[in-house]
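Hi P.,

Sorry for the delay on this. The queue was packed all week, but I finally got your sequence through. Input first:
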Amino acid sequence: MEAGSVGYTALLDDGTVLFGAILEETGNTITLGTATGERHVVLRSRLTQLIGSGKSIMPEGLEKDLQAQSLADLIAFLRLQTDTNNARKKGSTDE
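Then the structure:
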């Protein structure tokens, strides 16, 4: 499974529940991306639980509705997002 594609449920100290893939992590925050494209930057100090689902957030059977080129384009896009996020993380630790 690609990094950044596993679903996580984040429970916050105010009772808020968020679900999405981890897009970025720092020592103080995590950024979750939701299926609707929203980004939630969460302070680690506000997390009461972070639970990995162990499953991809990609909808089950999505590939059946896509033509081969569309599926290849989607995979390339997701890999680019992961590579970009990893480069950002590496850049922030190099400083």
